């Protein structure tokens, strides 16, 4: 059984992103869902990988002004 612990949503251009922190018998996880005109895609990141995910995201954010269309 899955339990939702926290939820955040953001709108970026025509995309809606849902961030759901959840828990199930295997542990905690972050589910990120992208909704574009009713089409949904999701990724699930185990809680044990959240720091590495954040580090990679921070690196991409730092690079946005270096030829990535900022």
Q: What characteristics describe this protein?
A:
70 residues, alpha+beta, Nuclear Transport Factor 2, Chain: A, 4-stranded antiparallel beta sheet, 1 helix, 4 strands
Gist of the model:
With 70 residues, this protein is of the alpha+beta class.
Descriptive account of the structure:
The protein has a single domain (3-63), classed as Nuclear Transport Factor 2, Chain: A (Roll). The radius of gyration is 14 Å and the shape is flat. The protein is an alpha+beta fold and 70 residues long. The chain contains 1 helix and 4 strands; from the N terminus they run ββββα. The protein has one helix at 50-63; strands spanning 3-12, 15-24, 27-36, 39-46.
């Amino acid at each position: 059984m899955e339990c939702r612990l926290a939820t955040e949503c953001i709108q970026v251009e025509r995309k809606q992103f849902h961030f759901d922190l959840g828990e199930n018998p295997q542990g905690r996880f972050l589910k990120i869902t992208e909704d574009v005109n009713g089409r949904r895609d999701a990724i699930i990141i185990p809680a044990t990988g959240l720091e590495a995910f954040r580090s990679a995201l921070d690196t991409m954010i730092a690079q946005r002004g270096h030829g990535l269309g900022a």
